[in-house]
Design a protein that fits this description.
324 residues; five-stranded antiparallel beta sheet; elongated; alpha+beta
Length: 324
């Protein structure tokens, strides 16, 4: 039986031909994403803002959001944030945490559930989640630090493993993917919570995997083809790893698509972010990870061993002493 191949072995596509257009488009998308986060903001979940949250699903006709808001307002728990969650007949209702101890919070939560059930007999409520303001601030700070350290650590690792230009390229690619994911959350207003941070960290790890594969092939070819120009060499490296990149991404995207459609609502935001991140990561590994190496003047000299006087060895020699 013949093996399935999405990419032929003799693929020879000039990807670097589109490097300026791809870089310009990515720059615009990053700027737009940052602007969207600044203007629209993120729909921070209860993990990061504190308060009480309950998931409500309606078995009959879906009430208007305004009717739900008025019903929650009559309960007397202050202004509520109400958004559709998962399906078109489910909403997430978030209210501020009442003053007092844990008992007061539990009473307020039960009051919210009872009020919703009374106003909408077809409503089915989940458990009430409660997070204090102090805990939410700590979670937000810890999540941001974790994301920043992950990106920095990956860039340092690639810098040590290869050359500093590769570390810069990896950092630029990771920033590109994280910024676009934040822009996605700002546009869709999907709740941004700890699951979303987990998705971002997973995207960063996935990008590292793809980046290492491409950069390792570039390094091998830089040592192998000393006289080849850098642009054709980078195209060769991308084409040689293209089959692996496409097969891996298609497999992951298929699994995520099924999870997005049939998976539980609680991980909907995580799955959606992962789906976008893998798609953008595949695009980045093909069109974004290597142009930086051209602009930073990476060439065959980058991996030539240093001589005793600190200079780079000018030629590479084969085992029999012949100049390559």
């Amino acid at each position: 039986m013949r093996l399935l191949k999405l990419v032929p072995d003799d693929t020879n596509i000039d990807f670097l031909k589109w490097r300026k257009l791809a870089s310009f488009m990515s720059f615009i998308l990053v700027v737009v994403s940052i602007a969207l986060v600044a203007v629209r903001g993120l729909n921070l979940g209860i993990d990061f803002v504190g308060g009480q949250s309950v998931h409500v699903e309606f078995t009959g006709d879906m009430p208007k959001i305004q009717d739900i808001r008025e019903a929650v307002g009559e309960i007397g728990l202050g202004e509520a944030t109400i958004q559709q969650f998962g399906s078109d007949k489910a909403v997430s209702i978030r209210t501020a945490l009442p003053d007092g101890d844990k008992a007061a919070a539990e009473i307020a939560g039960q009051k919210l559930v009872d009020g919703i059930r009374k106003a909408f007999p077809t409503a089915h409520t989940g458990a009430v989640e409660t997070v204090s303001g102090k805990v939410s601030e700590e979670l937000l700070r810890t999540g941001a630090i974790s994301l920043a350290l992950a990106m920095l650590g990956i860039s340092i690792y690639i810098w040590i493993r290869f050359e500093w230009q590769f570390g810069v390229g990896a950092m630029g690619r990771l920033f590109h993917e994280v910024a676009l994911t934040f822009g996605f959350f700002a546009v869709t207003q999907i709740q941004f919570d700890l699951n979303s941070v987990a998705a971002l960290l997973t995207i960063v790890g996935y990008s590292l995997n793809d980046t290492i594969v491409v950069y390792d092939r570039v390094r091998e070819n830089l040592k192998k083809y000393r006289k080849m120009e850098i642009v054709p060499l980078l195209n060769l490296s991308i084409n040689e790893t293209l089959s692996r990149t496409v097969m891996t991404s298609v497999s992951v995207l298929m699994a995520l698509a099924v999870l997005l459609i049939f998976g539980p609502d609680v991980i909907f935001g995580f799955t959606a972010a992962m789906l976008l991140g893998v798609f953008v990561g595949t695009y980045s590994s093909i069109l974004m990870s290597t142009p930086v190496l051209v602009w930073l003047k990476v060439g065959p000299h980058s991996f030539v061993p240093r001589t005793a006087d600190g200079g780079a060895e000018r030629v590479a020699r084969s085992d029999d002493g012949a100049v390559v």
